[in-house]
Amino acid sequence: MPLTFFTIIQMKTNEEKKYLLPKNDIKLFCADDNEYLYYAPRGLIYKINDLYFKQYIDFCLDNNINSLLSPQLIKDIYNYFIQSVSKENTKYAIIKTDETDISGIVLNISGSCNLNCHYCFAKSGKKFSFGNMSADVAVESVDYLINQNPNKNNFLISFFGGEPFLRTGTIEKTINIIENKYPQKKFYYSVTTNGTVMSEKHAELIKRKNMSLLISMDGTEETTNRNRPFAKGSGNTFKTILNSADVLKKYNIPFDFRATATAGQDNILEIIDFFESQKTNYHIVFCFPSYNNKHEYAMWNNKNIEILKIQFNGMIQYYFEKIRNKEFIYASFILEKLKTIATREVTNVACGAGRNMIAVNADGTLYTCMNYSGIKKTSIGNIVNGIDSELNKTYTPQNIDETLCRNCNIRYLCAGACMAERYFYNENITELVEQTCKLQEISWTGYLILFQKIKNLYPKLIDNIANHKLSYENIN
Fold it and tell me: Domain-by-domain residue ranges, the chain?
């Protein structure tokens, strides 16, 4: 039987497929009017400045049977690319997904708050999903942590809520007991606070115990007061937080701001400009609904995602202009993302929940993540009976290559995003959330563009960023 034209083409493409890069390993982006290829498995970036290579990549992405490249040329390009990749000195920071080394615990110390933030993850109406924790339970929780890893010397204790500093006495009592009980151990403390109850007494405690401090604040006065009003009576949350910041600065206490970007928000550039003016490190995270509190602030849709995309592109250009002018930027999250790209880190899991960190409620119930706190069905055990390994596996981030994310070309950058967010949408952590995937795509495309623009302008600056510092000495 004679070979038809279609049969010949099919035979050709089957042979060629052996020498095509998988679509999920390729991401294209443009910077400074040039096209670049991000190769996901090794975190490498290549400029596409060769016509044949451009056609080859298009062929890989589109499976275009009308490609003008011969099978031999396709094979040669593939082999050359793979050889080039293998010669690169690549630094990896792979999170071991098969090891559990729990050395940190989140104590939900406060089941109350003086604010009524509209998107609070821990409340349903006016009621918190967990109560106030006693010092006894807090200490027993730390006992459990240390018993799980008795040979370890360093432990992280995070105080969470609600508003932790409404329970300052309990925090201080807990710290004093565990430090007297375990003098041979080193404890590091962190507090996530709304920043509205800060006094010099708090500052002295923070300074004395060298606490790491994260203050939730959404930026400008109008935005902060709208999103994070006081629970009782009137008050200006924004000014109260800035007054607290002044107290901390008086004691030379470093701290970070964390802002939540909500769906439909259109003033992100104004917000980052405000934070830069404060000359204090800050982060911006996307708002998502919690199991307890589903709200419009996290109702991402195509329309407001497009609004965000425009703003995000403007934000990337804003940071580039500051760097072009050799100005310092205080956006910690930007430097962290640039460092990830610069060091070509490959991350297999989204976070250390259930592997490095656990959370505990006032009744001693254990969770892999504080965002699950209060959702009984997600509990993995308690501080008396310990962790149920099967439940822990169910609510712990999975290896990215064993999930639906394996088909994504930014999988090793995004690492699947927040598993708790998936649960809130799907009541499981395996299904993807389309809106989140779109937000991550916008974000990481922007970070890749910013990285490449910086590298094109100040190539030596990338080494400084890789070491997590923004220093302009000797970069020209």
Answer: 5-87, 91-471
Q: Kind and range of the H or E element at 186?
A: strand 186-193
pLDDT beyond 90 at 15:
no
Do residues 206 and 249 make contact, with C-beta atoms less than 8 angstroms apart? no
Say yes or no to pLDDT of 264 above 70. Answer: yes
Please answer whether residues 110 and 163 qualify as being in contact, where contact means their C-beta atoms are separated by less than 8 angstroms: yes
**Above 70 in pLDDT, residue 4?**
no
DSSP annotation string for 399-436 = PGGGSGGGG-TTHHHHTT--HHHHHHHHSSSSS--HHH
Cβ(207)–Cβ(253) below 8 Å: yes
Reported residue count of the chain is 476
Kindly tell me the burial class for residue 360, based on how many C-beta atoms sit within 10 Å of its own C-beta (0-12, 13-18, 19 or more): buried
Band the pLDDT of 408: cuts 50, 70, 90: very high
For the chain, give the mean pLDDT.
90
Which tokens hold the place of 28? 């294209």
Sheet hosting strand 282-286, strand order edge to edge: 282-286, 256-261, 212-216, 186-193, 154-160, 104-108, 357-360, 365-367, 381-382, 386-387
- Map residue 33 onto helix, strand or coil: coil
**Rounded Cα gap, residues 357 and 141, in angstroms:** 12
- Topology of the domain comprising 91-471: TIM Barrel (3.20.20)
> Long-range contacts: 202-208, Cβ < 8 Å, 24+?
202/165, 202/168, 202/247, 203/247, 203/248, 203/250, 203/251, 203/253, 204/251, 205/168, 205/171, 205/172, 206/248, 206/251, 206/253, 207/251, 207/252, 207/253
